[in-house]
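Backbone-to-sequence.
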């Protein structure tokens, strides 16, 4: 826990909005009753939900630029220890959540089927790689490296059936070979097993975070606020347009993290950051943003707390019987006694449960915020 350093308000708010959106889409009252924009695209194509995770990765790249400045972007024993501690720490938190989920749901831990990938695993891997690059590679080499990664990965997808939902998909084959039952929803009988946070699809994510880092470098330059906003908006618009045009040859696809998806979501993140900078810093309209600020300064903690709530609410049984004699858990009790009676047994009720989960996270985040407690790895 550390005292808050000088922060970029628009970045904190964007981070808070992103984490809040993550909590909402990850915690519906019913997975079968969701508004379409709050669900992921089944395969190719994108929904608003498909912008949430990449926004956080983009923000991580921007934030990394600020956090590594104190080391003058040089690899030293201190900077290396910092990168290792944070990267390994984030990964272990993800593993701990997986173990907690197994224990809470099944009453036992099954290491043989523990998922080794996931959202936090991807964040940890990309943070570690890009942070080391930031400390060892000159920033001027980042653009050609990004281009090489995205073009190379596009070739890999197109030549390796990466957009096919078949056993020939190179991403699936690689994950099956390396991870086996440690994949997401592994089924030994299925012809097509796929992990949306698989190993090979981490490759374009490295470029994704690198783009965020370059945006951070631009924000640190001695430019006027208006100039920074214009550059954010120009890059964002250009990247989105390029991603949209190239999708006809390389589809937008979150699950394989296609290069066009990188361009579209990084561009959107940059444009959103420009909009927030204009609203918060230029116009001074900040009153609406407090809830997101409280979440945005403790993002990892809030994300993990949301997962703990979700797991615990399903695992904890209440002394209240259903008609069939089984016990309600906390999740089903909230739906049955609160959201369904108030909002009907449908999509609105499911959304309101998500909002309740967000508010429960925010209450804790607000307490930490008021006490100036910032939990970091």
């Amino acid at each position: 826990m550390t005292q808050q350093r000088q922060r970029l308000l628009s970045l904190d708010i964007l981070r808070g909005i992103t984490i809040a959106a993550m909590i909402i889409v990850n915690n519906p009252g019913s997975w079968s009753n969701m508004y379409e924009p709050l669900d992921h695209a089944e395969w190719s194509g994108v929904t608003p939900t498909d912008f949430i995770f990449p926004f956080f990765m983009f923000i991580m790249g921007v934030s990394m630029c600020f956090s590594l400045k104190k080391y003058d972007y040089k690899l030293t024993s201190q900077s290396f220890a910092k990168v290792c501690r944070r990267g390994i720490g984030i990964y272990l938190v993800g593993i701990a959540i997986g173990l907690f989920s197994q224990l809470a749901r099944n009453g036992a831990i099954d290491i043989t089927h523990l998922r080794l990938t996931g959202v936090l695993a991807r964040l940890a891997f990309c943070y570690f790689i890009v942070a080391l690059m930031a400390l060892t590679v000159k920033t001027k080499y980042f653009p050609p490296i990004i281009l090489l990664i995205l073009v190379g990965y596009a070739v890999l997808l197109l030549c390796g059936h990466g957009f096919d939902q078949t056993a020939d998909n190179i991403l699936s084959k690689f994950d099956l070979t390396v991870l086996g039952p440690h994949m997401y929803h592994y089924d030994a009988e299925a012809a097509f097993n796929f992990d949306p946070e698989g190993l090979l699809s981490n490759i374009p994510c490295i470029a994704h975070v690198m783009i965020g880092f370059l945006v951070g470098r631009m924000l640190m330059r001695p430019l006027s606020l208006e100039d920074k906003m214009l550059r954010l908006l120009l890059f964002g618009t250009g990247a989105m347009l390029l991603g949209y045009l190239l999708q006809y040859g390389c589809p937008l696809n979150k699950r394989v993290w296609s290069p066009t998806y990188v361009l579209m979501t990084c561009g959107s993140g940059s444009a959103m950051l420009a909009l927030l900078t204009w609203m918060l810093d230029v116009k001074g309209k900040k009153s609406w943003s407090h809830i997101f600020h409280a979440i945005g300064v403790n993002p990892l903690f809030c994300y993990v707390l949301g997962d703990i709530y979700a797991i615990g609410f399903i695992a904890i049984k209440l002394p209240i019987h259903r008609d069939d004699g089984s016990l309600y858990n906390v999740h089903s009790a909230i739906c049955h006694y609160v959201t369904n009676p108030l909002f009907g047994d449908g999509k609105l009720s499911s959304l309101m449960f998500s909002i309740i989960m967000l508010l429960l996270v925010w209450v804790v985040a607000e307490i930490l915020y008021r006490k100036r407690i910032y939990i970091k790895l």
